[in-house]
Every structure is written in structure tokens, then in C-alpha cells.
Amino acid sequence: MINSEIGAVLAVMRRNVRWGVRYIADDDQLEHSLIHSLKELRKQIFSWQSNWQYVDPRLYIQPFLDVILSDETGAPITGVALSSVYKILTLEIFTLETVNVGEAMHIIVDAVKSCRFEVTDPASEEVVLMKILQVLLACVKSKASNGLSNQDICTIVNTCLRVVHQSSSKSELLQRIARHTMHELIRCIFSQLPFISPLANESELHVHDKVGIVDWDQNSGEKRVENGNIASVSDTLGTDKDSPSSEMVIPETELRNDEKKTEVSDDLNADANGENAMMAPFGIPCMVEIFHFLCTLLNVGENGEVNSRSNPIAFDEDVPLFALGLINSAIELGGPFFRDHPKLLTLIQDELFCNLMQFGMSMSPLILSTVCSIVLNLYLNLRTELKVQLEAFFSYVLLRIAQSKHGSSYQQQEVAMEALVDLCRQHTFIAEMFANFDCDITYSNVFEDVSNLLSKSAFPVNGPISAMHILALDGLISMVQGMAERVGEEFPASDVPTHEERYEEFWTVRCENYGDPNFWVPFVRKAKHIKKKLMLGADHFNRDPKKGLQYLQGMHLLPEELDPKSVACFFRYTCGLDKNLIGDFLGNHDQFCIQVLHEFAKTFDFQNMNLATALRLFVGTFRLPGEAQKIQRVLEAFSERYYEQSPHILIDKDAAFVLAYSIILLNTDQHNAQVRTRMTEEDFIRNNRTINGGADLPREYLSEIYHSIRHSQIEIEMNPDEGTGFQLMTASRWISVIYKSKETSPYIQCDTASHLDRDMFYIVSGPTIAATSVVFEQTEQEDVLQRCIDGLLAIAKLSAYYHLNSVLDDLVVSLCKFTPFFAPLSADEAVLALGEDARARMATEAVFLIANKYGDYISSGWKNILECVLSLNKLHILPDHIASDAADDPELSTSSLEQEKPSANPLPVISQSQPSATPRKSSSFIGRFLMSFDSEETKPLPTEEELAAYKHARGIVKDCHIDSIFSDSKFLQAESLQQLVNSLIKASGKDEASSVFCLELLIAVTLNNRDRILLIWQTVYEHILGIVQPTLTPCTLVEKAVFGVLKICQRLLPYKENLTDELLKSLQLVLKLKPRVADAYCERITQEVVHLVKANASHIRSHTGWRTIISLLSITARHPEASDAGFEALRFIMSEGAHLLPSNYELCLDAAKNFAISRVGEIDRSISAIDLMSNSVFCLARWSQEAKNSIGETDAMMKLSEDIGEMWLALVNKLQIVCYDQRDQVRNHAILMLQRAIAGADGIMLPQPIWFQCFDSAVFPLLDKSLAFAIENSRKNFKKTVEETLVLATKLMSKAFLQSLQDISQQPSFCRLWVGVLNRLETYMSTEFRGKRSEKVHELIPELLKNTLLVMKATGVLLPGDDIGSDSFWQLTWLHVKKISPSLQSEVFPQEELDQFQRRNAKPEDSPVPENEA
Q1: What CA–CA distance (Å, rounded) separates 784 from 471?
Q2: 152 versus 23: which is more confidently predicted?
Q3: Any catalytic annotation for residue 627?
Q4: How far apart are the first and last CA of the chain?
Q5: CB-based contacts of 687: which residues, under 8 Å, 6+ apart?
Q6: Strand-pair partners of 281
Q7: What pLDDT, in 10s, does the model give residues 539-554?
């Protein structure tokens, strides 16, 4: 390969006669030295064979380099030689292992830098320049590139820069290649940064590193030349571009006199250490030098204070763009590794950012865009080291430019806005801005400023939507979507931090660990809390300083007893204070104010700072007062502090004071427009002679101060609300930035957790909803509409996650406005809008998505959601099962045909007013079709397009799953459920159709929440009661209310036994219905009650619950249509005692009595009712036996016995009432069943007094009234059935007496009862009907009486008395018996038995028989 390259170079050289044989004096022919060296090389290369690693590369490279360096060669020859070197480099003939590789690389770089050739034509010249660029780039890309020294790298970059400069007068191709090569070089160099160990060679590096001293004048480049560093680019590129030289192209000789100005410094320092660093393998030293040079390229062009009103073509933007592009490449490749190298990091923190702040205010959108790209890369890679600089850039550049009121062009605003939005799209940007700046008292509220700017910029004011509005909105939405992505799906408990209110020195508060969220999250929240209070305090202070300080004491921000230090720190560290007021306070002659002033000065650190810089920093924190005495006091405090910390040049504080005062006067002289004759440097030096304790200050020291003040004014600070609002960056402010960066707290890096999102969301949610709503309203682009919806849904998620119900309610209200239901549209237009208008469709879908997904956290928003639902209901496009509950039977739900298929004539009918009682299913296909013919025969049928739109609208509504809102209400939190119920009630007052529909939904919600019915039941019941009570005539609403309550009871009774009484009590509203209403629905109500009883009888246990049910059944006994169903329910309860309970026994008896005496139904039903009553006695016997078995003979047993006795007595009394029925069959059957009921008492443990009550309240009245009825009846026509009644009654009394005889015979009242029986028998015997006695009664009574007497005799109740003449039981009995049947005594007690009894029981005095107490 080497041989072929030699041949190529020789071939080109031989074309030229100049390179032929040369003759000397002795006629010897000699070859030219260049050709000779190439030929000699050819001889040697084949002897080396395969040992190339041990061959010194200089041996085979030098001949080619000689050609390159020769002044005699032309462009073609130089070009071929360069190509050969390029080939050797790219084929990697030598590597790092090759001997003397470093020297070889050095001579290549040195030769290419010093390339010489004759110019023959422009084209060949450009070819050589391109090949130079190729070789230099190949050197850096070669595997042997590590052999290059720092010096070599600087030389390569310098040479490439010369070519870039030279190409400006050449072809476009050369210009592009040169710039591309420069970019590649920077990429190759800085791509090595990650592989260089930290602090490598740093100790030997002595780059000029003065920070904070930035000269903003356009002549600053000259200043740097004197320091041995890089000159300004204006010098580099400001030389003659068209060189007349025909000898060489590289402009080395042209610029030779200014070489040190135009190149990357080839020697970092003149000392030995610097030389060693430059000759070492390349690394940090050359990168520092190159990066420093790139930063100085930005010093050319505009005046230091670049502002938005500068002439956009006042300077060439090409140079700064080129430099910014190179810097961006370096930062992209070096990335976070810059922080490992202090020198590089310092350049970025100070010089680079200073220049970025300049060019950020450029009128060129392209420059601004590049600056923003660099800042974004710096944020991503080095934000932890650039906290103060980033805040300054946001505040002084981005936020200022993005606002049109500061004179920025639309293009500038758009670029700034794009940069902000790009930053907002970074996952942690907003969280870190909030944590680091908004929660730090010494910084501005960057997050709030950004969010406010974006929200304001998204508002279209008096104009159409522009790209800027969309861009700003995208930034806002990116912010909330980033938060939404960080939170989980599970909603946490509401977490609102609280802070202890006590005084502490807020300026000293520090976090224990800025890297652990467990420490810094509570810390920044507390800091934000303090900052909010400080902002309020600052506002009070700005209005009235004295009252402001008092307010701060009340807020525990200042101590109860003011001390100078706390007030000074308040002035020093609080943003938003009026700087005029601070200056006046500090300059005041009051002793406390003077103490505050000195404490204020002590908060500054002036070490290693010249006096002018320190003074800039000091007076930048307040506005210097105008009065001389105040200025003197302020400068005295400053001078004392400065001398205390920097006593190096000044001999005492008086010297510092005099010089500081002199600087203030110089500043006024140099920058006041009213001063015509400016002070010269000599004047300034002369004015300050002998001020340093009688001696002069060094001339260089004063000269430096003079030029600093002359080139950069000390600004008298303005308040943010004065002038432009956002201030321009100046030298003084930049000094403050650098000073602040040295003492600021560490940068907090946020992870993907949502530590502070709640606090941020609370700030940004309102403006975002407002801005998004406005854009959503005005835009017509579907992608923008979708973006708005995405943002609003993200807000909904966050609102729910952080339990911010009010935010979610506001969002729902905003979205509902865009649905077609709140616009003044006809029904037809609303349906078409829902199907065809993307805005209306998206808003509708979003509203119901939020209702379904985040209903737990909706409060007042339910009102708007329900208005949408009601509107859809009126349009007849809701699913028909919308108001069904989860337990509805499948057959009750609407068929799929009704759900899916649109009606034949939907659109015309939508506009009609439907009758209030028309069922909802009239909206189905056939129903509407028929109605269209009935109501408006002349109205045309809808077109196919209308039908398609209607069908599409139904499909959209179906996909909204509106039914799930109500069916899934069982999952809502309690508060939201109550809000939903209340909203349903409030929404029902508009018209009857809406009221009916809301009531259906309310009932469905109630049924779906059966597990927590107590939360809403009282509200629901009161609403239904309010519907039922005042209504006088039947209507759909009352019907729905009544049957809704019945449905609720039917569904909930099986599941809520503890609520049985409460639920059944609600049925009492049926009893409160007005007569006409009750009559209209009685039959259906009864059927529902029957269904309720059959399904839930076993769940009803209490007397209260049964009383309601039985009351409803009792009423039906008088209603022709309802009585059958009512009696069926009663039969179900009482038959065989299936559901008879002590709690409902008497209620059932009363209801059965009502049915028995009712003449609405047939006699058979009355007979059945009597049978039910009579058979219930067996239940009493069973309960009595069960009680006896389980309880035994105890007090509880006695109590239960009394209760059962009362029930039995009630049974007897109810039956006795039926015994007076006018219908003979019913009456006589009732007497028989009464007898049966009394007979059934044998199985019941009855208290003895019960029998007396039975006779007094039932048996005796029965005989008395039956006799009276018979007498009354006999006056007309004495029927046999009446006679039978008397017979049955008589038998009943006789059997009842005999049945109870054993229990009552020993009771004191027995005699009275017996006499009562005898009296009634006597009365029955003596009564005549129509003039004659009843034969059956006349025959029956003696027989019954005889039987009774015999039983009494057998049981020992009736025995002969000794004293026949006394008023004894015996005598009373026979006294009455003889009136009935005189012969009965001899039949029952023959004379022989009486005699025997008297003889056996003869005594001196007979014991008396129990006396009659009647």
C-alpha cells in the first residue's frame, strides 16, 4: 500500500517539468530531494516485511509530509500527498502499540497545520482544503488518536477553524464540509469525556478561571487577549477574506501577527506545568481550552445587553449559530460527565450561561431555538449543578420572551413557548421546578409562573385559535398528564399536611437529606407554607412597613420582640418586597434601622471579590436611597463588612467607604444622560489619590474598577411591577446569580413518584380547566378536541385521586356546557348534533366516562350530569333499561330490538309533548310509528339520513354506559351517593315526565344500595311521601311512587331484617292516599302486597311491621276488586298458622273479622274468614305447649300464659262480634266456631280470671244480644235460623261453663257466674216469640241444665247444705232451677240421697256453702 501511494505521488510530480532532472555546475544530474526521499522509502519498505509494529511510522510518513510542507509543490501534488496520509491513517497501519506512535501523530498534525502549496486554480485549492479536513478528522478518529497530545488536539481544532473561516469566500460545498468536519471533531473529542476519570490532570491545569467577572461590552475580546486567552471571534473572522496570495491557502501568514488572538491557545500557561499538561495524551486540558474558546465565540456581535428591540440584522447570526451548534454537540456527548470535571463545569456555570442569557434575548428565532436546545440538554444532564442558572434563564429569558407585551415577535414567542412545552414534557420537570424554586423562599415561583403563562397564552383573546394557543394548551395538558401518569389507579386517603405554627428562623431551615423523599418532601411542603405566609407578609409590608412587620410577628415569621437580625434576614431572603421601602428602611437614622442595616450587610460574603463587584452585589438587593445621608449610612455599613472580609489592598474601612462612594459617583457620571462631560480614567485615578491611609491605591486596581463601571452600569434596582415586569439580565444581576449559586441549597431531584403532585395540581387545575374549555369551545380540529378531552380526563383522574371534589365538579360543569343538551337546540337538532358534531360527542362521552369512573368524588356535579340524562330521556335515545336495578327480572328489561333498532318515525315525535302517563316503551319502533299516525298524520316520515343520525346517536349513548352510573351506584362513597340522591330529587321538579323518570332512577339507586339503605332511605321516603300526600287525583307520578315503595320493600326485606320495621312503616303512605287515588290503585297495590307477603312473611317479625301489612289487607275487605287478593294474602298468613306470630295474631284476627263481616264478597269467604279465626286457636295451644316445654313453671311462664290468654280472649271477642252478623249462615257458623275456639282452650294454659272475662265480655253478651235480635226479628217473621241461633248460643254457654267448671269453681266469683248462667237460661225459657215459646229452646234448656247439674254434682261443686233455710249456694241454685224446671231437683238429687248426705254430714252447726257475691 505504501509503495502504491509512493507511486501515485511520483506520478503526479513527474507531470510537471519542474520536477524533472536538475543540473548543477559540474553537469551532474541530481534528483529533487522530495523525489529522492520517496524513492529511498520505496527501497526500504520491502525489507521491513511483516514487522511493521516495530517500524517507526515517521520513516514512511515523513516523505509524504515533506511534500505537504514544501512551498514548491502545487495543489494537485499536495492533494495526493494528503490523500496518502489519509489512507495510511484510515487503514490503521500503525496503532497505539506501534513504536513512537505519538511522535508520528504529532508530526502529521504539525505538517497539515503548516501545509504549503502553490495556488493554480480555485477548484484544486478547495480540494486541498477538503483533504486537509479529512486528514485532521482521521487523526482524531484513528485508533492511534490516544497518541495525540492536548497540544495536538488544539492544533487540529485551530486548523479546522481556519479552514472554516477561509471557506466563507469559497464554494457552498466547502463551507458545508468544513462546518461538518468541525462538528465531527467536537463530537469525537467530547465523546471521550465519559471515559476520562474525574480529576485527571486537573491539578496541572491552569486555565484562567475568574468567574463572575463578565464584561458585557463588545470590546471584551480585546481584554481577553491581554490575559493570554482566546480573542473574540470578531478578530478571527474580521480579517480580509480574499487573500491575494498565490502561494498558500491556509491563512496562517495572513493572520500571523494576530495568531495568538485567533487560535485556541496552544499553550494553556507558560509555566512548566502547563507545558506538561499540553504535551500529555489528550484529555481534559484540551477540552477545557476548546470549550472555553467556543464560549468566547459568543462574545462577538451585539452589545452585551442583547434585548428584543435590537435590529434583527445588526450582526451576523452565522457565527453564534455555529458556536452554539458546536457547544450543543459537546454537551450532548459529554452529558452528565461534565460535572466530574470542575473546570468544564465552571465554564458552563458562568461563561456559557452568561452568553446563553445574552443570546436568549436575540431577535433571531433561530438563535433562540438553538439556545433553548442547549438549555434543555443542560437541564437533562446537569440540572443539579445549574440550579440558580436555570432559574435565571427561565425568569429572565423564556418567561419574558413568551409574553407579547415585552416586545417579542410572534416567532420569538413561539420558540420560547415550544421550549417551555418541551420542558413540561419531561417527566420530572414541573415537580423539580416546584420543589426547588416554588418551595424556596429565595427563588421566584417558576412553576406558578410557567403554569400561569401557559394558561393565559392558551386563551384566545378577540381572535381565532392560533398555533400558539394550541402549543400553550399542549404544555398545560402535558403537565397534568405527567401527574396523572405518576399516580396509581387506587385512590389514597386524603392527605392534607398540617404545619405547626410557631416562630423559627425561616432563613436557617435546612433539610437533613436532600436525596431522600422521606426527608425533603415534608421539608419543601413546610418551606412552601412558610413562603406563602412570607408573600402575604411582603404584601402587607409593601402597603405599610410598620403594620407589615406586625403582621409578620402575628404569623410567627418574626419574633414577638423584633430583633435586627430577623428583620435583616427578612429583607435579604424574601422575594416580592418593595426595594424602595427596603432602601428607605436601611438608610433611616433610627437606631433600630441602623442595627438592621449592619445585620443586613453581614448576610453577604465578600471574600475574594473586588470592591466594584461586591458593591454591585450589595446594592442589587435594594434600591439605593436618594438622600446623601442615607447613602452615606448604607455605604458605611457596606464598607465595614467589605473591609472585614477583604482587607488585602485597602488599609482600613474608611478607604473602602471613600472608594465605594467614588464608584457610585463614577456610575452616575458615566451612565446619566444629563452628564455631558464624562470622567476619564485619569480623572478617576486622580480623584482617589491618597485615600488608602494617605497612600495611593494601585493604578491597575483603580483602572480595572473604572473600566468595569464604564462598560457595565451598576443598576439601581426596580421593582418587578415597575416598567416591563420581567427584568433584563445585566452584569450586576449575573454577579448575583453566580454569588447565589455558591450558597444555594442542593438541587432536589424528583423521581417518578407523585410526592408533590397534589400541591401542584391544586395550583394548575383551575387555569387548565378554564383554558382547555375555551380552546375546546373554539377549535374545529378533531385532534385538538381529542387533546383537550385527554387533558380534562387527566384532570378528572387527579381530582379523584386527591379527593378534590370541587375541582371535579367544576370540570363536569365545564364539560356539560359542550354537550348538545345545554344549547338552545330543538330535539331534532340535538340528536343530529350528538351524532355528527365531534365536540358534542366527545363532551358527552367524557361526561359519562367521568361519572362512571370517578363518581365517588362528584358532589354538586351530579346536577349537571342528571340534566344530560334527562335531556337524553326526552330525546328517547336512552337505553330502555336505564332505570332498572341489578335484580330486575330479565323478562322485564327491554328487548334487544327495542334497544338497538331506531323507531320508524323518531325525529318528528321527539318534538311532541308526550302524555304524562304514557309508558316509556312508546319510544320503541312500533309504538312511535303508531303514534305518528295518531297524532300527526300529515307529518312526513324521517329521511334515511335522519334515521342514520338517530341510530348513530343511540349507539353513542349506549357506549356511554349511562345505566352503569345508577346500577354501580352501590360502589359510590357515602357522600357522593347522598349527593346523587339529592340531585335526583332536585332534578325532578321540572315537569311530570322528568319527575317520573327521576323517581324511577331514584328507586333503582335505592334498590342497588340495599346494603347501606340507611344512608339514603329517609331522604328517599320523605321525597316519595311528598309526592303521595298532596296528590288528589291519580297520575303516573303517584303510581310510580306507591309501587316504587312496594318494590323497594319486596326487594329489600329478604336482605335487611334489621330494617324490616322501617321499610314496612313506609307502606303507611298507602294509607295516606287520597280516596280517589287509593281507589284507582287499590287492586294493584293489593296484588303487590300479596306478593310481598308471600315472599317475605318469614322475615317479618315485629308487631309494627305486621300492623302495616295487616292494615293494608284489612282495607281491601271493603274493596270489590281488591278483596279477593287481600283475603288470599290473609289466608296465606293464617292457614294452619303458617305465619301467625304473637306479634301479628290479634292484627290477623281483626283483619279476618273484617273479611268475615264484609258483604263485598260471597258468604263462603266470610265462612272461610271465620274458620281462619277459629283454627288459630290451635296456634295458641301450640305456642303454649312450646313455652311450657322450654320455660317451665316460672315467672316468665306466667307472663307468657297471660299474653296467650289475652290473645285467646281477643279471638273469642272477635268471633263474638261476627256472631251478630245479619246473615244467618254466617252468624250461626260464627257461633259454632266460637264454641270451637272456646273448646280449644283445653290445650292452653289460661289464667283463671280469663274465664270470667270470657263469660262477661263474650258468652253472656252473645246470649243477650242473640235473644234481643231474635225478639226484634220475631216481630216481622220468626225464622228457624234465628231459633237455631238461640239454640247454638245456649249450647255454647252450657259447654263453656262445663269446660271451665274445674278451673273456676273454687273462685270467689264462681257463684256470680253460675247465677248469670241460670238467669239467662231462665230468661230464654220464659221468652215468647210472636206469643209462643220456642219449642227447641224449651226442650233444650232443661236437658242442658240437668246435664250441667249432674256434672256439678259429680265434681262435688253442688252438694246439699245442712241449713236448708239459709241463703246458701245450694238454695240459690234450686231457687233458680225450680223456675226453669221444678222437677229437676228430684231427678238430680233423689230424696234418699239427700237424707243419706244429711245423716253423714250432721254436725252441731253446718258449714256454709260459698255465698253468692253477685
Answers
A1: 10
A2: 152
A3: yes
A4: 155
A5: 662, 679
A6: 149
A7: 988 999 888 888 888 8
**Spatial distance between the Cα atoms of 1372 and 172, rounded to a whole number of angstroms:** 152
Digit-coded pLDDT (tens) for 63-106 = 888 888 888 788 888 888 999 989 888 887 777 777 788 888 88
Distance between CA atoms of 1373 and 1359, rounded to whole angstroms? Answer: 10
Burial class (CB in 10 A: 0-12, 13-18, 19+), 1390: exposed
Q: How far apart are CA 739 and CA 749, in angstroms?
A: 22
Read off the pLDDT of residues 327-363 as tens digits, 9 standing for 90 and up.
999 999 998 999 899 999 999 998 898 888 888 888 8
Q: How far apart are the C-alpha atoms of 230 and 148, rounded to whole Å?
A: 22
The 8-class DSSP code of residue 748 comes to: P
| Spatial contact of 146 and 254, defined as CB atoms under 8 Å apart | no
Question: H or E element: which one contains 1328?
Answer: strand 1328-1329
Task: For strands 29-30 and 22-23, give the pairing.
Answer: antiparallel
Place of cell 447570526: 317
Per-residue CA distances from 300 to 218, 256, 318, 370 (Å): 6, 21, 11, 17
Calpha distance 231→221 (Å, rounded): 5
- In sequence order, which residues have a C-beta less than 8 Å from that of residue 700 and are 6 or more positions away? none
Distance of CA 519 to the CA centre of its chain: 24
Span 814-835, mean pLDDT? 84
DSSP 895: P
CA–CA dist 476, 1029 (Å, integer)? 54
DSSP letter assigned to residue 728: P
Instruction: Find the angle CA(1088)-CA(1093)-CA(1095) to the nearest 5 degrees.
Output: 95
* CA gap 1063, 1092 in Å, rounded: 12
Query: What distance in Å separates the CA atoms of residue 1312 and residue 1291, rounded to the nearest whole number?
Result: 20
Q: Is residue 229 very low, low, confident or very high in pLDDT (cuts 50, 70, 90)?
A: very low
Name beta bridge partners: 23: 29
**CB 601 within 8 Å of CB 629:** no
Instruction: For residue 1072, give every residue at least 6 positions away whose Cβ sits within 8 Å of its Cβ, in sequence order, or none.
Output: 1025, 1028, 1029
- Catalytic residue among 627, 780, 1186, 1343, which? 627
pLDDT tens, residue by residue, 883-905? 776 555 443 333 333 333 344 34
pTM listed for this prediction: 0.77
**Of residues 815, 817, 803, 819, the one with CA closest to residue 976:** 803
pLDDT interval class at 527 (50, 70, 90): confident
